[in-house]
């Protein structure tokens, strides 16, 4: 048993639009202070999940509790504890950044300071500019600012960094880390897997309305999907690749065998993006993915053997 | 189970929560915000705030040379074209500030995500309504005051001096503006998208102005059109305004031979109720599962 009840609790969540089943039974928890990344391809059902949690959509069946309340019955006191950054907005924005934030701050019982929030999203120089005059990325920062102005306990970030330049994205990551440090629970959806890896504690992957995997960011996809690869170019110029749990040993044996520095040597650890793509394609391809993975696994078991024994599993990547 | 990464994270301190701002305070804050946005939107300023001024100017310029309206055979009792159209324009101003402005405005907010965003905040729909109605009251009052100033000092029209008449003006315009505001909120449910809002709303408002004695002299309309107009609130607003600004002798031009102020109050009251109920029933922050 956990010592505290989860901030978000979802059990067997179903959602249908007519005969189309958008969500086919999803269950997960988000604990207090945790940053949970919800990943999945377009149309997988991420936004449906998040909008059900925010109270914007009604579920077809299943149990949902957000901050101890059923979102379908969430009142104003409940909403005061949430921060919502929606996926897209197209408001005309005839008010300035400061005016907009001051107004929204006034809706909450215990808001953050307007100047503090404007600084946190890096819009100090645009504070007196009308929102309609801002660039797309700057407007997105206003959305984020409006999401955190009410000092939320639970923050929903639905693809928050779309349209950000790399510097703004890193600034945003720092901001999210500060929010985390203050104890804010965060539900994040994003198509940038590096962002999920940077910010998330745990992740769930949704595909076709089902949760196909869930776990700590560093463990999702299972150990199998995280086996590193050693890649080099052999004498005739063919690129070779080996999947192995012991890349150091492979490299050592490789050096011993070739008697010199292997050309274009790389040890590649699968990024979250690789793992994610493997997961999403895996569900598309059915069981095939797992069968393939099994065949390539030789090197780990023959760890003590000679390099020659392993050569059978070396795959030719490209020539 | 161990998922130690999140253990020991500080929970938000519940005891620190302060009270949410009250319904009325947020309503007042919305009025200020909405009014600011209104005057920064060129469309709303032109088509709902300035339109009655433009129409009054056009009517005066077009028909002013034809002489006075309502002159008795003995040559007395007539008033200038501008003086005759002033009450109609004041009524039209209320209709535009309320119905047209809010119906287009709210349909637009529905379409561009403003309402969805507000729906995710602890703002009560009631405070939102107060904001919209307050905005219409503020802009409608400024509009009426400016129209009368223009009438008095540009067109040289005599305004009433009797305090009782101004009292009538006060309740007719207050009643009219609030009724129109609710009807505007209700009508905003009709357009399928923000973009189609003007196409849906403007014809309705325009037809009402033609049949209700705003652009055309009401006593010249055929009886069936007068009866049709009597089903809608604009006719009664215009009639109430005529009672304020036209000489008593003009009451004989009304359908019943009198300005019928109690009937004006009754009809506006009914429409206020209709608007209130429709607004309450049709308004949603977002269309769920649309």
Mean pLDDT of chain A: 85
Strand segment count of chain A: 13
CATH-level-2 architecture of the largest domain in chain A: 3-Layer(aba) Sandwich
**Termini separation of chain B (Å)?**
41 Å
- Quote the CATH topology of the largest domain in chain A: Rossmann fold
Question: Ranges of chain A with pLDDT <50 over ≥5 residues?
Answer: 286-312
Count, helices of chain B: 10
Q: How many structural domains of chain A?
A: 2
Would you tell me the structural class of the helices and strands of chain A?
A: alpha/beta
Rg over alpha carbons of chain A:
24 Å
Helix content of chain A: 25-40%
**CATH H level of the largest domain in chain A: which superfamily?**
P-loop containing nucleotide triphosphate hydrolases
Domain ABC transporter (chain A): 8-233
Biased composition (Basic and acidic residues) (chain A): 290-303
Pfam families (chain A): ABC_tran
Keywords (chain A): Antibiotic resistance, ATP-binding, Nucleotide-binding, Transport
Explain what you see.
The complex is a heterodimer of chains A (319) and B (290). A six-stranded mixed beta sheet of chain A has the order 5-6-7-3-8-9, sandwiched between helices. Chain A has a four-stranded antiparallel beta sheet with strand order 12-10-11-13, with helices on one face. Chain A has helices spanning 46-54, 76-79, 97-105, 114-120, 136-148, 166-181, 193-199, 247-258, 272-285, 288-295, 298-301, 307-310; strands at 8-17, 20-30, 35-39, 61-66, 82-85, 154-158, 185-189, 202-207, 210-216, 229-233, 239-243, 263-268, 315-318. Chain A is 34% helix and 25% strand. Chain A folds into two domains: 8-216, 3-Layer(aba) Sandwich (Rossmann fold); 223-318, no CATH class. By secondary structure, chain A is of the alpha/beta class. Chain B is mainly alpha-helical. Chain B has one domain (21-64, 79-282). Chain B has helices at residues 23-40, 42-63, 81-112, 114-119, 125-153, 163-187, 197-211, 223-229, 233-245, 261-282. The longest helix of chain B has 32 residues, at 81-112. Chain B is elongated. Mean pLDDT of chain B is 88; it is low at 1-15. The A-B interface holds A 4, 17, 31-34, 54-58, 76-77, 79-82, 84, 86, 88-92, 94-95, 99, 103-104, 106-110, 146, 150, 153, 182-184, 201-202, 216 and B 3, 5-6, 9-12, 16-21, 26, 29, 33, 36-37, 40-41, 108, 111-114, 116-117, 119-124, 286, 288-289.
